[in-house]
Structures are given as structure tokens and as C-alpha cells.
Task: structure prediction
Amino acid sequence: MGCCCDEDDGDILRHLMTSNFTPETLPSSSSSSTVISPMNSHFSALSSTDILRIIFEKLPVPDLARARCVCRVWNSVASQRDIVTKAFLAPLKLKNVLGDPLSGSFWRDNTLGKFAISHRVMRGDSVASLAVKYSVQVMDIKRLNNMMSDHGIYSRERLLIPISNPDILINRTCFVELDVFAKREVAVLYPDDVPDRRSTYMAYRMSSEESKKRVFDSLKKSMHVDNDTAQYYWTVSNGDPRAALAEFSADLQWDRQVGHA
Result:
């Protein structure tokens, strides 16, 4: 989802203005095209942090992300953890989210694709049997875990299972984790909301830097590039491995097109 400069001040304020504002209540010098901007010194209400908190606490995640791009004051309020967390949890009726994401873009999306169930791989498990157990598609499991074949299951301690029914999330606690196979940060659900401490994925919460290094190394291997090139795409994508791969692929495609021109 785009953020900065996707909408002008008027687009954002239209989400915030109440129905009490009518043409009759505006100054006589105003026209139908007049836009009240937060940068307008005559409208200081929208630069008050107390008022902004009241407004932002009612915004959904997409509008909150847009609000952060209006000005520094809005960004400082809209980025507060309690406001961001409330917006992230509310639509899906989640109880709590634990962990600090490495990428700031994590909070800009709380659709079902952001969440997954952690399944510890057991003897006899197969992708097909797990798809039946969790009522999801085989290809969706493979896509989320970046699996080329069913045999990839045997080299892993766990699989992430996509969530198709939002009711699963009601009153649950999820854990922000950077998964080395999925190459992305995911809000993970565990049985009884208790993480499996035998799993190496607990390393994310114990040492985020170590997990970050593991994902970076995996990214570099996937792109088949040197360390500096991988670091460049890691930086421009704000630490989002999937975005880094997408950016790298787009550049490769452009190079091929120019080469054939």
C-alpha cells in the first residue's frame, strides 16, 4: 500500500471531518473548493496532539498510514505504539500482538494475509494432509512458505499455515516473527497462544539481530548477488525481504529489456 504523497491533505481530511461541517458553517469567504489544511495556522485544532489522538484512535490501518505522511506532528502521533496496535487489532477482534517488527511497513496492513498459524512438523505430515486439516489450499501453503515441492516440508521444523477464516483470530494473541523461509514478517498464532519454545523461531524474540542476519543471508542467496548488492535492496525496501526481491526482479527485467533494445 502506498503511503506518502498518495493523497493530498483534502483526501485525508475528508476521512476526518464530521457531518457537522456544512457550507453554512464555513466562513463566508470560503468556496466549495476550499480545503482546510493541517498546515493552516487558522485551523490549529488539527495540530493539537490531544485532539489528533482522539481522531487517530478511530482510524483504520490504511488511513492511519496516510495520516503519518501529512506532517511531522501527525506522524509523531499516528506512529505511537498504542494507537498503531489498536488499529491493527480492532477489525479482526484480536486480543493482543506481541513483538516489535523490524520493518515499519508491518503495521500498514492487517489483512488475513498478514497472519498465519504455526504448525510444528510431525512424522507423517504432508502438505496435502495439512491443507485438509486447516481447510486451506495446498498451493497457498507452498506459496506462503516458499516451497517448490512437497519434499521441502522435511527440512523444516514448522510450516506457516495461511488463515482463511477471520473468526480464528477473534480474542487471540499473535506474535510478530520474521520467518526465514517465508522471507517476511508474519503475525503468528500458536496453539493456546503459547509459542513453542523448542522451535528455533523463538530466536526472533530472543535476538532480532540474529534473525535479521539469517533472513538477510537467505535473501542474498536467493538473489545470487554479492553482499553490497543485497544490502542495497535490503535498505531501499526498509527491511522487507519480499519487497527487496520484488525490487530486484523489477531491475533485472528492466536490464533485460534494455539489453534487447
About this structure: The two ends are 32 Å apart (CA to CA). Residues 241-260 form the longest helix (20 residues). The beta strands are 96-98, 115-120, 158-162, 173-179, 184-189. Confidence is low (pLDDT under 50) at residues 5-27, 200-207.
